[in-house]
Amino acid sequence: MQSHIFYHTSIPKYLRRTGLYTRALAKGLKHFAKQNIEVNVVFVDEKEILRINKQYLNHHYVTDVISFNNPHPPVVLPGEPWGFGDIFVCYPVARKNAKSFGHTILQEMLMYVTHGALHLSGMDDHSPQDRAEMDRQAERILKQILR
């Protein structure tokens, strides 16, 4: 797995923990992380997450994380990674929600990266049961990463 972490908004240096985000991504992607895939994680502000939400999902609100799976291309050149997906994390929402949930900002950001990776790996959160399972998986992964 190749991962790329982009900071497209102002984030304090102590939160630019690329290695931790990459580990969260790999654990959330499960068996896909062992394949020759490429995943981008982009930290954005509220204006950008709103634009993405409107343009691609027709949602007119700010959210914490959005993930997009890319369809498998018909041909992948030998040795070239498949652009598997993209995860957009809204840093200002993470900062606000961390206080509400009693997490550090870093924990909240890691939770969003993990949540997005779980979506890319095929999990969904449309029902309360599915959401609870995703939350359990994300919490388990966070505990492993932050040991």
Describe what you observe in this structure.
The structure is a single chain. This protein is α/β, with parallel strands linked by helices and 147 residues long. The chain has a single domain, classed as Collagenase (Catalytic Domain) (3-Layer(aba) Sandwich). Helix content is 47%, strand content 19%. α1 links the parallel β1 (2-7) and β2. The mean pLDDT is 94.
Secondary-structure map:
Elements lengths: L1 E6 L10 H12 L7 E8 L1 H12 L7 E5 L12 E9 H11 L3 H16 L7 H18 L2
Helix pairs in contact: 1-4, 1-5, 3-4, 4-5
Short description:
With 147 residues, the chain is of the alpha/beta class. The protein has helices at 18-29, 46-57, 91-101, 105-120, 128-145; strands at residues 2-7, 37-44, 65-69, 82-90.
Number of domains: 1
CATH topology heading: Collagenase (Catalytic Domain)
Pattern of helices and strands: EHEHEEHHH
As a whole number of angstroms, the C-alpha radius of gyration is 15 Å
Broad shape: globular
- Using the coordinates above, name the CATH class: Alpha Beta
In CATH terms, the superfamily is Metalloproteases ("zincins"), catalytic domain
Question: Architecture, according to CATH?
Answer: 3-Layer(aba) Sandwich
Question: Helix amount, in percent?
Answer: 40-55%
Sheet with the most strands, sense and barrel status: 4 strands, mixed
